[in-house]
Amino acid sequence: MADLIAYLRDLLVFKAKPDALNEDVDPGVQKSLAAHAELISTDRLLELIDLFAAAEGRMKWAPNKKLHFEVAIIKAIQSLGQATLDEVIEKLGELRDGGRARPTDFAETPAIKPGAPRTKPAPVAEGVSPAPRTRAAAAAATTEARVEEKAATVDSEKIWQAVLARIPAQKAFVRNSTSAAHVLGVEGRNFRLGFAPGDKAMMDILGTQTNRKFVETLLNEITGNDWTLKLTVNEKLASKSTAVAEDPPNDFKDEPLIQEAIELFNARISQ
User: Fold this and answer.
1) Domain 154-265 homologous superfamily, CATH
2) H helices of 97-199, where?
3) Rg of the chain, C-alpha, whole Å
4) What are the residue ranges spanned by the domains of the chain?
5) How many CA atoms lie within 13 A of 63 on its CB side?
6) pTM of whole model > 0.70?
7) pLDDT for 145-159, tens place per residue?
8) Fewer beta carbons within 10 angstroms: which end of the chain, N or C?
9) 6-15, 176-185, 215-224, 244-253: least confidently modelled range
10) How far is CA 185 from CA 140, 164, 230, 231, in A?
11) Beta bridge partners of 192
12) Please, which residues have CB within 8 angstroms of residue 173's CB and are 6 or more apart in sequence?
């Protein structure tokens, strides 16, 4: 294991600066390094070194050292056939730009074999320089496209009406607080609700951890997406609590929550 890690380390140094090992490595080994350097990328090489270094640490205390060595070799072979994060992001960038993805499937990428011919990339036309695309830029562009697509297709008002219809009558506080909300639309993963200044108490009720979690669960069940409620007070919004305040004063005793409290405490309402 130590010899294998040392060879991978020399291969990494050779890829970074081929002349650095002229005095420390035999010419025959240098030829081997030159051949293998063309078969593997730097990020794959770093991944292999980390994998074998971790296995070496386990082997020091394991009674069956050969088993850990063989398992590490198998994992290394599998890792060479898997796609890296950079490759995934690169493909996402190609798809977003309308480019044609490479026909090789990630799941079927064969492991690199020593001595196998390396396919050279297609030449770039003179005077044309490919635009650099960093991993962060590709990820940000992909996320932005998904957010814009979601905002364009989500009917927030229709979704909110479906949420109101699924709140049971037993949850009177939740029903009243959600009914006082104005739907302001979506912003990324945030489902934005606005309240009039006079309905701030309703916003505080909906903003409790239990009630908020309950409504966010309904949003997830209806849309299939994870949403976070974003509650704000807007002075331009009209209050929706007027109709509740104008209800006959004797009707409150018919609320399911009041009836439940009466049965629980064996109470009665005085006239």
Assistant:
1) DnaA, N-terminal domain (3.30.300.180)
2) 135-153, 156-166, 172-179
3) 32
4) 2-80, 154-265
5) 0
6) no
7) 554 544 446 688 889
8) C
9) 244-253
10) 22, 16, 10, 11
11) 185, 230
12) 205, 211, 257
